């Protein structure tokens, strides 16, 4: 509920689910006016969001596992000091009703003069049970925290913040910097080897003007070894046998997926060749496929191919922009981030309403696992825990 005051006839607006399942946006434009209503097509919504954009209010509602239906009310003028809260109403002054609220959040969006990659709103690192959707914040900071990555021993999350890598226990605690020597300007594309002994990183710390380059370093830290000869190169995957790294690179004016020997020997091997963006390459645990996302069909969709680049196959085709497919340790499921269709296919910006969705690896119907405000840096590295049910995300 949002209302101008606590007066019973105050201007107000509510996003509500009634006992009979009716889901609607109800509002009183002015003090003492009649209550009006905009009804959602679905009923019995389990997830409700209410957003304010100046004098426009947006209600988003969904059943568990489904994408939002949106109801928009323009021209609703309320003071900037309007009251916000939760409510339960019996519609009968002689009755008493109860309700249970879960996963309640207040999110303050970026201001109008927000500068991407310069201004940040602060971050939470969360762990989530993928089957139940239960989420727990384990660490918060006023700056940017990105790309939490679970170690195979189940003991540590590795994440990026302001060019440095940090370790933190999955139940929270004090972060500890993971030393990377002179390679300091690390971005959020870091990947652990399947045996958990090595860490691949991307960084723009080397020769000026080359952009991001790929390095490897022991998971305990040290001076990284440069792997790619040229940039920009953005790491995304490590083969199960530890022999290959996959990455997105700009060569000849287009971004495609390449692989290279993890010891830096030999030439890079081009796996895709498209004028649109191909990104987010990640091996399946059995080494049979590389999963990736591509904008070649006009929207960003999930694809897979064989490790030599053959048999490129599209897996998703819906109204959303789908990025960064991460394969579960048992090789049966994918989890990925989905933006709304209003986001350009080749972009994955900060601070948007996004979904985390799960899907069988064969590409059958996706299911929403989490509704959140995030985007760039939320889940662009392999984030499944070794126990499979838990995943990590940055919000």
**Helical proportion?**
under 10%
Number of helices: 0
Q: Which consecutive residue ranges, at least 5 long each, have pLDDT under 50?
A: none
The geometry reads as elongated
* Fold-level CATH name of the largest domain: Neuraminidase
CATH C-level category of the largest domain: Mainly Beta
Written account of the structure:
This protein is mostly beta strands and 395 residues long. The protein folds into two domains: 2-84, no CATH class; 123-394, TolB, C-terminal domain (Neuraminidase, 6 Propeller), CATH 2.120.10. 0% of the residues lie in helices and 42% in strands. The chain is built from no helices and 31 strands. It has strands at residues 2-3, 12-17, 23-28, 36-39, 47-53, 56-62, 69-73, 83-84, 123-129, 135-141, 146-150, 157-161, 164-168, 176-178, 191-192, 198-203, 213-218, 225-226, 233-238, 244-251, 254-261, 269-270, 278-283, 290-294, 301-305, 313-314, 321-327, 333-339, 352-360, 367-374, 390-394. A hairpin with a 7-residue loop joins strand 3 (23-28) and strand 4.
What is this entry, summarized?
The protein is mostly beta strands. It has strands spanning 2-3, 12-17, 23-28, 36-39, 47-53, 56-62, 69-73, 83-84, 123-129, 135-141, 146-150, 157-161, 164-168, 176-178, 191-192, 198-203, 213-218, 225-226, 233-238, 244-251, 254-261, 269-270, 278-283, 290-294, 301-305, 313-314, 321-327, 333-339, 352-360, 367-374, 390-394.
How is the topology of this model organized?
Blueprint: E1 2-3, E2 12-17, E3 23-28, E4 36-39, E5 47-53, E6 56-62, E7 69-73, E8 83-84, E9 123-129, E10 135-141, E11 146-150, E12 157-161, E13 164-168, E14 176-178, E15 191-192, E16 198-203, E17 213-218, E18 225-226, E19 233-238, E20 244-251, E21 254-261, E22 269-270, E23 278-283, E24 290-294, E25 301-305, E26 313-314, E27 321-327, E28 333-339, E29 352-360, E30 367-374, E31 390-394
Antiparallel strand pairs: 1-2, 1-8, 2-3, 3-4, 5-6, 6-7, 9-10, 9-31, 11-12, 12-13, 13-14, 15-16, 16-17, 17-18, 19-20, 20-21, 21-22, 23-24, 24-25, 25-26, 27-28, 28-29, 29-30
